[in-house]
Amino acid sequence: MDIVMRRKNKGNYNDGRWRLKGKQYKGKEISQSLKQLSDMFNVTLTTKRESENYWLAFLDNIFGQVQDDKRKNSPLQRRLKSIEDIFTDGKETPVIRDEYERCLNIPAHDIENADVPMIHPDIEKQARAFCLDDTDEYETNILASLKPRVIKSSESVRKEIDHYIEAYKKRGHVEHYSVAQSLELFYEITGNISVQDISHEHYREWMKRVQDHETWGGTTRKNLQRYLHSFLKSMAAIHRIHVAYITLPQYRLRRDRPKKEQYTIEQLRLAVDKAEGVVRTSLLCGLNFGWTKCEVVAMTAENIIGDDMEKPRKKLEWKANIIVPCHYMWQETRRNIQYGLKPWILERAYRLFAKEHNLPSQKALRKTVAQYIHDHCGETVSRLYRGDAQCDVHMGSYIRHYTPEQKAKLKDALVKVAQWIGVEA
Q: Per-residue pLDDT tens for 328-358?
């Protein structure tokens, strides 16, 4: 008699041996001595209490083998496979589980039960609408055509998106928030389909939503499209899907022309005269180092080396070949340095200050000084001020950045800027 395992029937222990009375497996009594259990699990067992969990593990193993044998010998292979697909989809219910157990216990010689697939829960409504059930083989073939295709986790859009975003995070790339924004919008349209099912219609709907978004400008839309294109190209390489439609002319997005917002000399002198506290810190760091609020709040005392401030731009920290600018620090800036500022406090304070005095944004400080240095000291020094790395072979492979001679030129330029504005250099 085959074993039917129940945890409540764990057997009896007597004279150093466990037994499951009245149950057999492959014609033999189910029993194990303490020595047999010790050898099986590579432990030393001497008492009932020590051996109980190992005996239960042995029974679980026997039960698994019995289930495998039943699954292999059942005459209802198609029906069992259809139920296992339902389990894979996370649609298991007590009724479906009971039906699975019933099918497992059908003897191999049975000819009364038809081997037809079970109706998937997702198509029960369609089946009722067509007056179909799973008792007729012809009707079950129709139902099978309605059954949703099971998506392997390795091929799902959800898994690929998560993996792609995680790769951006591991590289320390600050743009991973925007990457996630672009791909999550695409996922809202596709749902959790297979990568193979990504189509032109999904991309067209994504384009429509991006173009209809009221608060996104041209640059934001272009960047979001660039992230999605990169994702789709990687999917094309991995899964061999067709994405040539992303190159069609009607889907080209253009960036907004850069706003070259700058301060006038009168506005700069007014700002320097009126700014106090955190606003003055933000103002002087923006003028002296070309910083935005991201660099100001991340500044530490370790960044000050002698008379210089050495700190890379926050948005470029993820790069392997990052350039670390070296700016001469004005005396006025040194007196007003503050550490550990909160970004929301800094941003709000400067925004209110700029609104009160009718001034441009804090980001415009960097553009204003870069323009002045470019006009009076040359493009090369202006690039040093901005911490900009040119991409040609000469600058990328031959020329070092911030040599003593370059630092001297940048210092002279920053002294001129301080005199122009009216602060102590």
A: 999 999 999 999 999 899 999 999 999 999 9
Q: Which residues contact 178 (CB under 8 A, 6 or more apart)?
A: 223, 224, 227
Q: Is 358 left (phi over 0), alpha (psi -120 to 50) or beta?
A: left
Burial call 313-325: b when 16+ CB within 10 Å, e when fewer: bbeeeeeeeebeb
Q: Which residues contact 75 (CB under 8 A, 6 or more apart)?
A: 106, 107, 108, 109, 110, 111, 113, 115
Q: What pLDDT, in 10s, does the model give residues 62-100?
A: 877 777 888 888 888 888 888 888 877 777 788 888 888
User: For the chain, first and last CA: distance in Å?
Assistant: 97
**What ranges in 191-302 are assigned the alpha helix state H?**
200-212, 218-239, 265-274, 277-289, 293-298
Place of tokens 């000291």: 377
Q: For residue 164, which amino acid is it?
A: Y
Structure tokens belonging to residue 166: 């995680």
Tens-place pLDDT, residues 300-315: 999 999 999 999 887 7
Which of 25, 98, 16, 101 is CA-nearest to residue 55?
A: 16
Instruction: Find out whether 335 and 316 touch, Cβ atoms under 8 Å.
Output: no
Distance CA 282, CA 286 (A): 6
- Does the pTM surpass 0.85? The reply is no
